[in-house]
Amino acid sequence: MDMEQVTMQLIVNSGDAKSKAIEAIDSAKSGDFGGADALLKEAGEALSKAHGYQTDIIQEEAGGNVPQMTILMAHAQDHLMNAITVLDLSREFVDLYKKISSK
How many angstroms separate the CA atoms of 40 and 23, rounded? Predict the structure, then answer.
């Protein structure tokens, strides 16, 4: 897979992780905690895939094959970092909705 394809996969999987995490909050807000947990799991899996593509890029550079930094690459890294943050916060929101619901 060439670097552009790897970068696009990083964007796609990061975006999927972020979307699933936001959907999990909506599910929890509606009281569907099983659905929220399933979506958080799916978000985590998508994030793991995205992280795998980032690891590929890092390994290429560590091997002396330094990829050209492009706007697309910066965009991909931005998507990954946002997905990580949103997933972390989504887990907290889901937990809060569970606590509120149990009272």
Answer: 9
Report the C-alpha gap between 93 and 48 in whole angstroms.
Answer: 21
Domains of the chain are 3-102 (1.20.58.80)
Active site residues: 75
The answer to whether 51 and 80 have CB atoms below 8 angstroms apart is yes
CA–CA separation, 61 vs 73, rounded Å?
13
Euclidean distance between CA atoms 2 and 102, whole angstroms: 50
> Is 13 exposed, middle or buried, given 0-12, 13-18 or 19+ CB atoms closer than 10 A?
buried
Q: pLDDT, tens digit, for every residue of 65-102?
A: 877 888 999 999 999 999 999 999 999 999 999 999 99
Q: What's the rounded Cα separation, in Å, for the pair 101 and 71? A: 44
Q: Show Cβ contacts of residue 93 under 8 Å, excluding neighbours closer than 6 positions.
A: 24, 25, 28
Rg of the chain, C-alpha, whole Å: 16
